[in-house]
Automatic annotation (TrEMBL):
Gene3D superfamilies: Leucine-rich Repeat Variant (1.25.10.10). Residues 686-794 form the RNA polymerase II assembly factor Rtp1 C-terminal domain. This is Transport and Golgi organization protein 6-like. Coiled coil: none annotated. It comes from Musca domestica (House fly). Residues 1-22 form the signal peptide.
Length: 958
């Protein structure tokens, strides 16, 4: 306490009676008696008349307008007015000698004293301000001000009391003032009373007083809770008469446009008695007026955006987001400028993922990232009405899909699954709300991985990893190394979209995407062909190996990535069961696309047959057959158009397999249900073989295999055109545990090799290297591939690149058993193709050295040494392999003489050395017998036939 006299006034307050003070309150006396007793105590303590008190207050508060007008304040007034003046004098004296906002121990004020100050201000507002409010607030209402308003309000008293309690209204530590709506209502009404007076003749306030009064109103806006202020201001607006309404309405709008105004309005309306839907309508209508100034609308937009972000982590406020979203949507419809603000704000939320800071390893905290995703989900996906237009997020598509790919592998964790679901809903909502033209452009951009410049992509150095320190969080970090150059297929946006559609209920969207991808399929391979060809022509072969590798991978990705993505996406979507029924219901659309493809294929013609992708045409013809055989009955016009396209295609292609497909399709379309007996018999035989091969009994499978072999030998058109179907059935039967079935499947593959050898061998090698398949199945396929090569015999030299690269790739596998199988199969292939392994020899030695030095699986080491032994046994003429013999001999000699190596490894090495010694002796003896001492004399200048240089093996020629 800074003055000794202030204690007197605290004791004076202790002696007063207040209704809310349980210590001194007396329920037996009336309100009039209470005021009279308090007045008696105050007058006895101060020993001053009301006029003298008013004069002291005017001088103390420096109210220049009331100088020498104290008689107007305290003359001919009632008991309540006198009580208000004395109370103001009391608390004003306390205020001047007390620091209410200080945290020092000597300045601390008890909670009881704070409440008493609040009771005093409440009494002043009730007895001094309330009866003297401007008559404009009276109206026909009997509540609040109606019964207590006087006909001739004492405006001088109002001005003095307002000046006196203005400083108390801004003290945040006074509890009742901040929580009491009635005090705030009376104070605001008193301020407007003084403002209204400026319009009256004879009692005009000067301009400075008006400004001062409005300043108090603005100061109160920043001091009390904005919801309280706004609710009371709206109540006054509802009570005021029409001629004064414009003044309150203007201030109401100014407060709405100022920071915090929207939230204040929203919560003030939510506390009203109106229904929830009507509250939303009122708020939306009030904040989204097109007539508002540009800056005012921008302020409301920014307020709503801040409210949306703050509401995500606030369970009490998140239920009000719908009103904010509808308001924001209306404001965006009003002005392009408002849309731009929202777009910039959305980009700002993901900015840390786009522009990385050099010195910061953590890009975003997981809580911040999940809140951002939740915010987007709430703003765009929670409702079809209470949401923002999804077109805002169209440029975010590549960013959202990339984020989904990053966290999808962690979705088994509960806290990640929610974020993953939110991202998937966002992506599907955006695409589902697009028109066909817009969706077509988006899917094309995805397939080609070329988005417009303004679209957003996650920075290539951003990674999402597990947080070792907190198992309930992930880390969004940045790395210095670049993205792996060979990951372009695994990061396909089209494939991720197909997976999303397959899991979702958006079947109609899945159909649209399928049709668009199907349209792109034949053309995407040539989309960048000119660019790739130009790049290949400009390649500099003198650059370093890493640059060459990056360049090659870039070219592969540009040339083939789009087609690979589309094939994978179509494969994923076709497994979606609802899509199949939708395709049959919309078969006419699919047929029209197929007809367009056939026209394109026909226009390419035989002269540019290298531009015609055979696999694409085969897929188209297979689809046509499925539609003709299993689809709904088509009109004669459709069949006639398909037949015409097929005839044109047959006339322009010379490929035997395509011609077989076309011939069979022509027969099916021309004959329809009344097919010729020959076709019926062939179809029955094919279906019988297919049924037997699909059976689970081994003897039936073998019978079906034999039927297929017979059909292939008889060159049945239906069978030859369905090689891919037979191949899929044979791969499934190959996994049978019965060796008899397995060996017959090998015979079937060997017979199919002569129909389309490249596809068969390539399919087997892909299945052999498929890491997602089971180990036992892969080992069986590897053995089958080797046996197929034995069935083909020496002619398999044409496929040496596919076969040797397949097994050498398997020799690098981290799986021990698979590596052992690959080395064993590679040894047999080297024995068969020993005459043509020169360009692979160095790589073979590197693989064997790597296995022998760093490998830990002994059977794989033995198989690696066996590769050299089998290679030596397959050599016919040592002269042709002379540059390979010395490295082989040194390695085998070392392994055979080393005591540290395995016994069987030494045995394999010894066998190899014996084979080499035997072949060397045979070669030397053959050379000695054929050596001649005859001298050859050549006379130059005479034309003679050149001597032919034949190799020892007739199949050496490549």
């Amino acid at each position: 306490m800074s003055s000794p006299n202030v204690m007197k006034y605290w004791l004076l307050l202790e002696s007063l009676i207040f209704p809310g003070d349980a210590k001194n309150s007396d329920s037996t006396i009336s309100e009039q008696e209470r005021i009279a007793k308090n007045n008696e105590v105050l007058q006895r303590s101060m020993q001053l008349s009301p006029t003298e008190v008013a004069k002291i207050l005017i001088e103390d508060l420096e109210v220049s307008r009331l100088t020498n007008k104290e008689q107007y304040v305290a003359c001919n007034v009632d008991e309540k007015t006198i009580y208000s003046i004395y109370l103001l004098m009391t608390i004003r004296t306390i205020y001047k000698n007390t620091n209410f906002n200080s945290d020092k121990v000597e300045d601390l004020i008890s909670e009881h004293h704070r409440r008493q100050i609040s009771y005093c201000i409440e009494d002043i507002a009730e007895n001094g301000l309330k009866p003297n409010i401007h008559c404009a607030f009276r109206g026909d209402r009997k509540s609040i001000f109606g019964e207590s308003l006087r006909k001739d309000p004492n405006l001088c008293l109002v001005e003095l009391l307002v000046e006196g309690i203005a400083s108390f209204m801004c003290i945040t530590s006074l509890p009742i003032i901040r929580s009491s709506d009635e005090i705030t209502l009376c104070y605001i009404a008193a301020l407007y009373t003084l403002i209204f007076v400026s319009d009256l003749k004879g009692d005009e306030m000067n301009e400075s007083n008006v400004v001062s009064t409005k300043a108090k109103l603005n100061k109160l806006w920043g001091s009390v809770p904005k919801v309280t202020f706004f609710r009371n201001l709206m109540m006054l607006y509802g009570m005021v008469e029409n001629e004064k309404k414009s003044i309150v309405h203007r201030d109401l709008l100014l407060k709405l446009w100022s920071p915090g105004g929207f939230v204040a309005l929203l919560f003030a309306m939510q506390k009203s008695d109106k229904e929830e839907q009507s509250v939303k309508d009122v708020v939306v209508k009030l904040v989204s007026q097109p007539s508002y100034p540009k800056r005012a609308q921008a302020s409301i937009v920014n307020q709503i955006l801040c409210f949306l972000k703050a509401s995500i982590d606030n369970k009490d406020a998140i239920s009000y987001m719908g009103t904010g979203l509808i308001s924001l949507r209306k404001l965006c419809e009003n002005s392009i400028y408002n849309r731009k603000i929202v777009e910039d704000w959305l980009i700002k939320q993901v900015q840390p993922l786009l522009d990385l800071q050099k010195d910061c390893l953590t890009v975003m905290e997981w809580s911040e990232f999940s809140s951002m995703v939740h915010l987007f989900f709430q703003a765009f996906c929670t409702s079809t009405i209470e949401c923002l237009p999804s077109e805002f997020l169209v440029p975010f598509i590549p960013l959202l899909i990339t984020l989904y790919q990053y966290i999808d592998k962690y979705k088994t964790k509960p806290f990640v699954d929610v974020v993953c679901n939110h991202l998937s809903h966002l992506i599907l909502r955006i695409l589902n709300n697009r028109t066909t033209e817009e969706l077509n452009i988006i899917i094309m951009n995805m397939a080609s991985d070329e988005y417009p410049k303004q679209w957003l992509k996650v920075n290539s150095r951003v990674r999402i990893e597990e947080d070792i320190l907190n198992s309930q969080h992930l880390k969004i970090v940045q790395r210095e190394e670049k993205q792996e150059c060979d990951s372009f297929i695994s990061c396909s946006h089209v494939n991720s979209l197909a997976e999303l559609l397959k899991k979702s209920s958006f079947s109609t969207l899945a159909l649209k995407v399928f049709i668009i991808l199907f349209k792109l399929f034949p053309t995407v391979g040539s989309m960048k062909k000119s660019l790739v060809d130009e790049s290949m022509n400009n390649m500099d072969l003198l650059i370093c190996d890493e640059d060459i590798q990056s360049r090659v991978i870039w070219e592969i990705s540009n040339k083939y990535n789009g087609k690979i993505q589309i094939i994978n996406a179509l494969h994923i979507l076709i497994e979606h069961k609802p899509l199949k029924s939708l395709l049959m219901e919309n078969i006419s659309e699919l047929i029209s696309v197929i007809e367009e493809f056939l026209v394109v294929c026909t226009e390419i013609g035989d002269e540019n047959s290298h531009q015609l992708d055979k696999n694409v045409v085969v897929i188209l013809l297979t689809l046509i057959r499925e539609i003709v055989e299993n689809g709904p009955v088509q009109s004669e016009n459709v069949k006639r158009n398909l037949l015409g396209h097929l005839l044109k295609l047959q006339a322009t292609t010379r490929d035997r397999d395509l011609n077989l497909h076309i011939v069979y399709l022509k027969q099916k379309i021309e004959n329809g249900s009344g097919a010729t007996p020959g076709i019926k018999v062939n179809e029955e035989r094919f279906e019988e073989a297919r049924t037997l091969l699909e059976s689970k009994e081994p003897y039936k499978q073998v019978e079906g295999i034999q039927l297929f072999i017979n059909l292939i030998k008889s060159k049945d058109v239906l069978t030859i055109s369905n090689v891919h179907v037979i191949m899929a059935l044979a791969l499934n039967a190959l996994k049978s545990p019965e060796s008899y079935t397995f060996l017959n499947c090998v015979r079937l593959f060997a017979s199919m090799v002569y129909l389309d050898e490249h596809i068969i061998l390539e399919t087997l090698t892909e299945e052999y290297l498929n890491e997602s398949a089971g180990m036992d199945d892969r080992l069986l396929i590897g053995e089958a591939l080797l046996k197929v090569c034995y069935e083909i015999g020496p002619l398999c030299y044409k496929y040496k690149n596919i076969l040797l690269n397949c097994y050498m790739f398997g020799c690098r596998s981290p799986l021990d058993e698979f590596r052992f199988s690959s080395f064993s199969n590679l040894a047999q292939m080297c024995k068969i193709l020993s005459y043509d392994v020169h360009k692979y020899f160095q790589e073979l030695l590197n693989l064997i050295n790597c296995e022998l030095t760093s490998g830990k699986y002994v059977p794989a080491k033995r198989a690696a040494v066996m590769v050299l032994s089998e290679l030596l046994s397959g050599m016919d003429n040592l002269i042709d392999f002379q540059e390979m013999l010395l490295p082989i001999y040194r390695l085998l000699k070392f392994l055979a003489s080393s005591e540290r190596t395995d016994e069987k490894i030494r045995l394999h090495a010894s066998v190899g050395l014996e084979t080499l010694a035997k072949k060397t002796k045979e070669f030397l003896s053959l050379t000695a017998n054929e050596m001649s001492l005859e001298k050859e004399i050549q006379i130059r200048g005479i034309k003679t036939n050149s001597k032919h240089n034949f190799k020892s093996h007739i199949l050496y020629m490549d």
